Amino acid sequence: MKLGMFTSGYQRNPLEHCFEDAKRFEYDFIELWGGRPHAYAPDLKAGEINEVKRLVEKYQMPVLGYTPEHNAYPYNFMIGSEHQRQDAVDYLKLCLDMAKEMNSDYMLISPAHAGYLASYEEIWNRMVKTIRELTEHAEKTKVKLVVETLTPYETNAFKSANDLLELFKRIDSPYLVGMCDLVPPFVQHESIMAYLEKLGKKMYHMHVIDGEQGTDSHIVPGEGSIPLPELFKELNYAGYDGTVTLELVTGYINEPRLYARRAIDQVRTYMRDAGY
């Protein structure tokens, strides 16, 4: 199982700190957050991708995943006019192009809130139309499109393993796959392990982090309420050997280097105890 560092929490630090720390703390790869000041796709297209490539080479630390900022301001393909939706699609197609340039294996998207007046039919029609367009572009770039479920605090559109199954039923492509962030199923009293059984070969990636009921906060492993030691034993028993990103976001933005080290040290302990 390969462990990745998510770089969102480093946005007040130089991008090089991410690569330096990933190497120092023995992460296997980086899941690069695509927002300013580090890796916003239009900036990468304008030439800043060369700095990312330099850091990949210097630290021998691949960017296996690219996660563009797209479910807050100014992009959210689930809400707004058709012009706004198409603008988000064009942006995410550029993100796929940049993911290819970085030799990333996957790009991650998550359908955000569709607004309080949207019906189920409107939500699904818009979501399928958008993700089909992005999947067709992913097939051209040969970069897998990983779709992530979110918590009810973040979305009214896409929250469960069943939502992923429904999406795969409507769009059939080897370049469209799913994942599980531990917090959404945990706070909704859904089974984390059910994602593996339901998605099967479509279960491509995980965000491993701790959490608490009643919040979408992403907490350092071992400091929340998710039974992570037992979870890793079950993941090993189930044969999961895919990629895992330790998704610390902005809750630790004041000291990302300290908490990135703590997170991987704790998870490595869980893995050893689980027999990985």
Automatic annotation (TrEMBL):
One Pfam family this sequence matches: AP_endonuc_2
InterPro entries reported in the protein's UniProt record: IolE/XylAMocC-like, Xyl_isomerase-like_sf, Xyl_isomerase-like_TIM-brl
Domain Xylose isomerase-like TIM barrel: 19-265
Superkingdom of origin organism: Bacteria
Entry protein name: Protein FrlC
The organism of origin for this protein: Anaerocolumna chitinilytica
Lineage of the species this protein comes from: Bacteria, Bacillati, Bacillota, Clostridia, Lachnospirales
Name of the gene encoding the protein in the UniProt record: frlC
